C-alpha cells in the first residue's frame, strides 16, 4: 500500500471542530453529522474538518493525545520498554502531519509536537528493524506484532514479506512437491501465548 | 460464500456500516497476495448510494457548504470502489493467459469471468495467428506448465474474532485471542491458504491442515525426517517398503513396529512416542473443530 | 541424435528422471530466468553419446566420449541430465571453499562478482543434484539470512544517488528486494516533504530581477533628485 492510501484511511477518523457557522444536520453516506452551531464543538471526519478549515469555516481542536505532555509521556514509555507500547491513535503520524500542514495555528506548540511525534516514530522503527532481523534469522513462521500501526507495517511490508517468502522458497526441496503437507520450517514448535505487549520474535 | 455475504448485508443496517465494511474489504484485498471473494452486494449497494447522492447533488443549489462536502465524499467512495476493482484485476492478470483453477471461479464476479474468457480467447488466437500456424502440424498446440498454487505467502493480519488453535503450519498451533487485541494484534504468518476467509472475518486467514488420516506415504516420510531424524536415516527404507500411509500410522502400536522390522527397544519406544504425539495433536484439532462447529450453530452471527 | 537418445531412454525406462525444477508460472515467460539458464556448470559425461562430439571443443570426434569433462549451460545440462547422459558437478560459486566463506560471514561476500544469479542457480542445482539438495538449500538460506540485515539497512537509508554503489555487491534477486524496500522509503520521504513542496515559491530569477529593478529605480531617482 502506498503512504497516500494509508493517509486516506486515516482521514476517516473522527475529530472535534468548533464551527464558525450554523447549519442543520448533514446526512452523508458515511453517517450523520451536526447540527453545526457556531461556537459548539462537534465531531466530524477528518477529511471534512480539513475541508472546512481550508475554507476558514472552523477551528480544529487537536485530539487529546496531541499535547506536549501526553506525547512526552508516550515517548518515555516507548524508550523504557523493549517492546512496542500502545499508542492512543492508530494513525498518529498521519493525523499529526495533516493537522500541522493545514491547521498550524490551532495546535499549541506545534513545533514541539512535531519533533516529539517524529522521535516516537524513529524509536519504534528502530525496534521494528531489529525485530525483523531476528525474525528472519530464526526459522519461525509466525510472529505476533501487537500495537504496530498501519503506517509502520506499511514501511516494512514489501521487503519483509518478500524476504520471508524468498527464504521459504529456498527451503522448498523440489522432489518433495508431491506431498500434501505444506512445508514446515520450524525446528521447534511455536505456541506464542504471549502477553499483552511483546515484539516480533 | 454468497449466503454469508447476503447475511452480511442484512445485518448491516445502514449505509455507513456498508461503507465501513467495504473499506475493510478494500484493505484486505490490497494487502492480500491472492484473490479474495468478490463482495458483489457491498459494491452494488454503494454504487446505488452514490447514484442517489449524485442525483441529489444535481438538484442542490450551490449552497456550497453541503454540496462541497457531499461531492468530496462521493469522490472518496468512488475511489475506493475503483481501486478495489483495479487491484482484483491486477491479481487476475497474474495468471492470464491461463484460465484460473475451477475453485477460483467462485471468487470472481460475472464481469471478471467474461473478461477472463475474452482475454484467453484473444491471446490464443494471437499466438495461433502469429506463430503457431507456421509450425508443423502436430506442434501447433501451446501447452503452458501447470500453475502451482501460490501457497507460501506471508501476510500481516488483524484478529477480529478469537479462533483458538489455528494451525499456521503443520507443526505450530496458535491461539488467536481477541482479548489481547483491543487495539491490534497483527500476526505475521505464512499463510498457506488462498482465501479461506472465515464467516465473519475478512482479515483472518485460517489454514485448514491435512488431517493425519489423509496423509500419503511421502507425507509420512517428511514427518519422519522432520521429527526423528536419526530414526529416519535408519528405518526410512522400512517405512517405504511397507508403504506406511497416515491411516496405518495412527493404527500402529509397538507390536506393529516390531513386525515392520524395528527391533531395537529404545528406537521403538521413541518412535512410538512421536506417533502418539502426532495422534494427540490431530485429535485436539478435531475436537476444536467440532467445538467451533457446535458454537457457530448455536450463535449464528456475533461481532 | 534422435535415434541414440531413444535407445538410452528405453534402457532406463523404469525410473524417469524429471529434473524439471520448480517452474512456477511466472518464471516460464520470465526473461531473467531464461538468461539465468545460460550460466555454465561443469559436467562429466556418463555414457558415450553419439554425434554430440561438437559440444567438446577440444576433441575432433563425432561422438562424445564417456568421462569427458565439459562446461555446459544449465538449460543444456538439464536436458542431458534427464536423458542420463551427464552427471552434474558443483560450479565454483558452490565449491567447498565458497561454502566455508559463506558460513563464516556471508554479508561481506561480493555476490555480484562471484555469481550474479546465485540463488536462482542454486535452486536449479538443487533439482539436478538431489543428493546434495538439502545442503545447497541450507547454504542458500544461511547466505541470505546473513545478508538480509545489510539489504534492509541499505534500503532504509534511501539515497537514490548512491544506489549503484551500495548494491554493487548484491546478486540480482537481492537487488530486486532492495529496490522494493527503497521504493517505500522514497514514497515516505515524498509524503513527508510534501508540505514544503506544495508551497509555491518565487523563483530566484524573479526575485533577483525585482531586486535589480528596485536598485535601478533608486539610482535613477537619486540621480534625478
Molecular structure report:
The complex is a heterotrimer of chains A (201), B (303) and C (225). Chain A contains 6 helices and 6 strands. Chain A has helices spanning 3-10, 46-54, 68-80, 92-102, 110-137, 150-171, and strands spanning 14-19, 26-28, 31-33, 42-45, 58-61, 142-146. In chain A, the strands form 2 sheets. A 3-stranded antiparallel β-sheet of chain A has the order 4-1-5. Chain A has a two-stranded antiparallel sheet with strand order 2-3. In chain A, helix 2 (46-54) runs parallel beside helix 4 and helix 3 (68-80) runs parallel beside helix 5 (110-137). The longest helix of chain A is centred in the middle third of the chain and has 28 residues, at 110-137. Chain B has 10 helices and 4 strands, in the order αααααββββααααα. Chain B has helices spanning 2-11, 15-31, 40-59, 64-95, 110-130, 217-227, 229-241, 246-250, 254-260, 265-298, and strands at residues 153-158, 163-167, 173-176, 185-191. Chain B has a two-stranded antiparallel sheet with strand order 1-4. The longest helix of chain B is centred in the last third of the chain and has 34 residues, at 265-298. Chain C has 225 residues and is mainly α. Chain C has 2 domains: 1-20 and 40-89, no CATH class; 90-198, Methane Monooxygenase Hydroxylase, Chain G, domain 1. Chain C has 12 helices and 3 strands; from the N terminus they run αααββαβαααααααα. A 3-stranded antiparallel β-sheet of chain C has the order 2-1-3, with helices on one face. The termini of chain C are far apart. The model of chain C is unreliable at 10-16 and 21-25 (pLDDT under 50). The interface between A and B is large, with 58 and 62 residues. Strand 6 (142-146) of chain A pairs antiparallel with strand 4 of chain B, so a sheet runs across the interface. Chain C: Component of the GINS complex. Chain C: Belongs to the GINS3/PSF3 family. Chain C: InterPro entries: GINS_A, GINS_bundle-like_dom_sf, GINS_Psf3, GINS_Psf3_sf, PSF3_N.
